[in-house]
Automatic annotation (TrEMBL):
The lineage of its organism: Eukaryota, Metazoa, Chordata, Craniata, Vertebrata. Residues 495-507 have a biased composition (Polar residues). PROSITE patterns: DAGK. Residues 465-478 have a biased composition (Acidic residues). This is DAGKc domain-containing protein. Residues 461-480, 489-516 are annotated as: Disordered.
Length: 576
């Protein structure tokens, strides 16, 4: 066996097959050697993806089994599968049991592999604070943690303090108030609601410690060091899916163990003197109404979102609004450039210097001499007024298993911007086409009533005098809508092409009418009247990552790379 600081090489056996094993810097690889000394298949594992090295023959699945032999060692590592139900490859625990020619050689391999692990993977967590929502999703949070996650943490030598929550906001309050010394990260076992609790806790605590007033929308917030990990166990796990590429507890656990670190933009949403943070969606109109409706049907479980989506769609509402936004730099990226944010994204990595020009990497804090106030809010605001089916703002693509491209397919995780999507009033068929395109490969922004802008900040208010407005469609309009409703269910795409001109005309007509809309008192009805469309409404609610906001007038601002997740973005599946 040759050993020096960068290179270890020897013959090893797996079963009765001989391998040439080789550790060099960042990689450990083993190549099968046949009886004629010819090289066959090689398996190569980056040291940063080694989960652990154990003496003897060790198994942890289906249950833990250790056979302490003198000549063997077992290597656990990240293994990628080709198949999965996500946009990224699922990870599983790979295992290789090596037999060495002598105990001395075995001990040298173990020492060298563990040293390499410390050198090349220095930012792994050692101690984690875990919050389990026992009621999230299908109520399997505790089972998922104890059967899938805890054994992997133990194997990797990670200790965890587990809190099973007894009420909403317990995790957030714990992070804000308790002593967190010694923890390298906080983990939630639950859905997007639990993630949001951790997000609020971690950002709030970091600002408290830095003496920053987070309620001031002009202030530059302190980026958070404490990493957040998500073990998906909710009914919506959109942040996990977007940042990892799959909702799979084992894949997420392995990302946590190897200490992956993905910066993430966060949007602060200010209304009156209150504040919320959002990553996946701040939505008005359709998305607000769906959330409000679904809250009335909690007893249905995850099915309530489908049910409410249908009900609200059938109500066919649109709302007046005045939207102002501060555009991002269109030379850097655009929401329609078809560039997907993948692991190692160039746009995101190049954004760091722009976002933190005064960042002191040695202390991971801003220099104290720098102004607390952000220059990111300088620039010319753009104003858009109209009637909207929905308005949404998302910092990330917000993809999920049902919508693998997401709300904005080319949004970036960490470039300091969000995508603002304005869907103007259109007929039900047009809107259905828009919604349907989230689930297929067609461009949901390539519709005449849809606009998308890459922005740094957004303000929303009701146009003056619009608050009480109701809109009359009249019998003819109702008949036309009813007829399209019947056709809609047949084939939305086919029908939409024949209606595109109609959308534009309607859009233009809408614009013409807008001048005197404040004086008309009109009533718009859903084309199939259900229990939720008996009262015409001119004001919707904001859905902020699954929470209903109590105010209509809000102001939002993107904080680039404010938090870090144990993730690495979606891996490019075309890469070897
Ligand atoms: N023990 C608890 N009892 C009641 N609510 C809780 C508890 N623990 C956490 N919560 C709250 O439950 C909400 C939903 O949790 P989570 O996101 O984990 O599950 P979910 O099934 O995806 O939920 P939803 O579909 O409502 O987003 C969170 O906002 C969280 O604040």
């Amino acid at each position: 066996m040759e050993i020096d600081s960068v290179r270890v090489e020897s013959s090893l056996w797996i079963g009765n097959k001989r391998y040439r094993a080789f550790l060099s810097g960042w990689y450990f690889s083993w190549t099968e050697i046949d009886k004629r000394n010819r090289e066959k298949k090689t398996i190569s594992v980056p040291v940063s993806e080694v989960i652990g090295v154990k003496e003897g023959r060790v198994e942890i699945q289906p249950q833990k089994k250790v056979e302490d032999t003198d000549l063997d060692f077992t290597l656990f590592y990240v293994k990628r599968s080709s198949k999965g139900n996500g946009i990224g490859a699922p990870w599983s625990l790979g295992r290789a049991q090596f037999c060495c020619p002598s105990r001395g050689v075995r001990d040298q391999w173990i020492t060298q592999l563990r040293t390499a692990l410390k050198t090349h993977s220095p930012s792994r967590p050692h101690r984690l604070l875990v919050f389990i929502n026992p009621f999230g999703g299908k109520k399997r949070g505790k089972q998922i943690f104890h059967s899938l996650v805890a054994p992997l943490f133990e194997l990797a030598g990670i200790s965890s303090h587990v809190v099973v929550t007894e009420r909403a906001n317990q995790a957030r309050d714990y992070i804000l108030k308790k002593d967190l010394t010694g923890f390298d990260g906080v983990i939630c076992v639950g859905g997007d609601g639990m993630f949001s609790e951790l997000l609020h806790g971690v950002i709030g605590r970091t600002q408290q410690e830095a003496g920053i007033s987070e309620h001031d929308p002009t202030v530059m917030l302190q980026p958070c060091d404490l990493h957040i990990g998500i073990i998906p166990a909710g009914s919506t796990d959109c942040v996990c899916f977007t940042t990892i590429g799959i909702n799979d507890p084992v894949t997420s656990t392995l990302h946590i163990i190897i200490g992956d670190s993905q910066p993430l933009d966060v949007c602060s949403v200010h209304y009156q003197s209150t504040l919320r943070y959002s990553v996946s969606m701040v939505g008005y109109g359709f998305y607000g109404d769906v959330l409000a409706e679904s809250e009335r049907h909690r007893w249905m479980g995850p099915l309530r979102y489908d049910y409410s989506g249908c009900m609200v769609y059938l109500c066919n509402r649109s709302y007046p609004g005045l939207v102002q936004y501060l555009p991002g730099d269109s030379h850097i990226s655009s929401p329609r450039d078809n560039i997907r944010c993948l692991s190692g994204c160039r746009v995101c990595s190049e954004s760091k210097e722009r976002l933190f020009p005064h960042f002191d990497s040695s202390s991971s804090l801003y220099s104290t001499n720098v102004s607390q106030y952000s220059s990111e809010l300088e620039g010319e605001w753009v104003t858009v007024e109209g009637r909207f089916k929905c308005i949404s703002l998302t910092c990330i693509s917000s993809s999920c298993p049902r919508s693998p491209k997401g709300l904005s397919p080319s949004a970036h995780l960490a470039d300091g911007t969000a995508d603002l999507i304005l869907v103007r009033e259109t007929n039900p068929l047009g809107f259905l086409t828009y919604l349907h395109r989230h689930t297929n490969t067609q461009d949901q922004f390539d519709l005449p009533f849809v606009e998308v802008h890459r922005v740094k900040a957004v303000r929303f208010s009701l146009p003056p005098g619009e608050e009480e407005e109701e809109e009359e469609v009249g019998e003819e309009g109702d008949r036309e809508i009813q007829a399209s409703a019947e056709r809609v269910l047949e084939d939305p795409e086919k029908l939409s092409s024949s209606n595109t001109a109609g959308h534009s005309q309607q859009h233009l007509a809408g614009r013409k009418e807008r001048g005197n809309v404040t004086t008309s008192r009109v009533k718009r009805r859903g084309f199939v009247c259900g229990p939720c469309c008996t009262k015409p409404r001119s004001i919707s609610v904001w859905n902020c990552d699954g929470e209903i906001l109590p105010h209509t007038e809000i102001s939002c601002r993107v904080h680039g790379q404010l938090v870090r997740l144990f993730a690495r973005g979606v891996e490019d599946s075309t890469m070897p």
